[in-house]
Amino acid sequence: MTTESTKNLPxxxxxxxxxxxxxxxxxxxxxxxxxxxxxxxxxxIGLTKDDFxxxxxxxxxxxxxxHLRDQKGYQIRKVTYxxxxxxxxxxxxxxxxxxAEILSVDKKLEPYDTFKELMNxxxxxxxxxxxxxxxxxxxxxxxxxxxxxxxxxxxDLADAVCGAVFNAFREGSYGGFTFSIDGVEGxxxxxxxxxxxxxxxxxxxxxxxEAPFEPTPLPTIQDQADQLQKRIQLxxxxxx
Length: 240
Fold this sequence. Notes:
By secondary structure, the chain is α/β, with parallel strands linked by helices.
């Protein structure tokens, strides 16, 4: 959950641009200090060429990042791009005071392995985003070397979220308190984590909570007959 206090924590943004410049994913995440020490995705958005009336506008994407820092007040420690058509954006962001680098979630499995482990162990909280759910559910491991989408699918937003989560986990440590997942160090503590204070799943899985009141019992046949008789009597009085 994003609050004014969490805005002061180090945040990490990752941007993934489609090869044909017709789509883009952008996500921002932070690591909450232990306990519970979970990675929270504060913001994610999937953009298409239709949002710009043509191909993706790289300058507009940079403006989103500037808006998150300068207008919304998030402390952004690092911005990473996947490498495709990113040289100019990285240069412009560095001039604006950001630490900006290249991070590929395609060329090695470490980012997705880390993301998957955090999700499976309930240490990552995702916002509700139908496109993100769709992309994550369709990811495929190709020849054990690359995470990819099926034909005619996409994974730009999934890659953006994965990159942001990976950066937040890897670099958002607190006071040297680290936790290792398959050799990847991050700032997580070993916690028995289930759900947050609001009952939402820390792994982004919707949990159906118990109703806050007793359900109304279905009416019996006699109840229905009594109600019908009352309506008949009311109708007669009105006609009467």
